[in-house]
């Protein structure tokens, strides 16, 4: 449905009413938990609709919100990386020794496997395979070279294959069968 340019509130209401769950699902691909994904969607909606724009239909607005979700996630990632590179300046050595080990257990489904990936690899995998963007567009969206994107994709998909124990069979020409076997904490397939 198309709205007059001045009726951006109707576009916002339609996006929130009809596409909010899909946007949260999309944000979950980037973040490690649902509350963080919901916060990311909320931030994206505020950033998208807080300025006058010519968003005249839900599809254009949703695409813009998805782009803002990606850029907001990457901005938060950069801020976190900057903070962690300087956090040692503010922490006493005794307190640093007491921090719990945050290594993740082996993944049992796609979401937890994505969460186990480093943020750059996860962003590349999501943009390439979930958004179906070409490598050049992924590189442009993340502000890195195409070679770096290819490397992140190679490393990320290799890790996903290991954690999900993905086997691809080509039994007949023109058909592909993919079997996913969850991996236990010991690293062995449950099948």
Automatic annotation (TrEMBL):
Residues 109-159 form the RNA polymerase sigma factor 70 region 4 type domain. GO terms for molecular function: DNA binding; sigma factor activity. Residues 16-81 form the RNA polymerase sigma-70 region domain. Belongs to the sigma-70 factor family. ECF subfamily. The keyword Transcription regulation applies. One of its GO terms (biological process) is DNA-templated transcription initiation. It comes from the Bacteria. It comes from Cellulomonas cellasea DSM 20118. Signal peptide: none annotated. Pfam families: Sigma70_r2, Sigma70_r4_2. InterPro entries: RNA_pol_sigma-70-like (IPR039425), RNA_pol_sigma-70_dom (IPR014284), RNA_pol_sigma70_r2 (IPR007627), RNA_pol_sigma70_r4_t2 (IPR013249), RNA_pol_sigma_r2 (IPR013325), RNA_pol_sigma_r3/r4-like (IPR013324), WH-like_DNA-bd_sf (IPR036388). This is RNA polymerase subunit sigma-24. Keywords: DNA-binding, Sigma factor, Transcription, Transcription regulation.
């Amino acid at each position: 449905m198309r709205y007059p340019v001045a009726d951006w509130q109707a576009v916002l209401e339609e996006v929130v009413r009809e596409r909010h769950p899909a946007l949260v699902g999309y944000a979950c691909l980037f973040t490690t938990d649902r509350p963080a994904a919901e916060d990311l969607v909320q931030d994206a909606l505020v950033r998208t609709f807080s300025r006058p724009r010519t968003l005249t239909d839900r599809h254009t607005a949703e695409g813009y919100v998805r782009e803002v979700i990606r850029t907001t996630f990457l901005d938060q990632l950069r801020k976190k990386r900057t903070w962690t590179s300087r956090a040692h300046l503010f922490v006493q050595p005794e307190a640093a020794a007491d921090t719990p080990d945050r290594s993740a257990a082996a993944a049992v489904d796609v979401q937890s496997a994505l969460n186990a990936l480093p943020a750059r690899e996860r962003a590349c995998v999501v943009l390439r395979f979930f958004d179906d963007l070409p490598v050049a567009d992924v590189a442009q969206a993340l502000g890195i070279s195409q070679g770096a994107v290819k490397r992140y994709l190679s490393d990320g998909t290799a890790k996903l294959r290991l954690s999900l124990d993905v086997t691809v069979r080509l039994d007949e020409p023109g058909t592909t069968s993919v079997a996913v076997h969850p991996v236990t904490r010991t690293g062995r397939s449950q099948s």
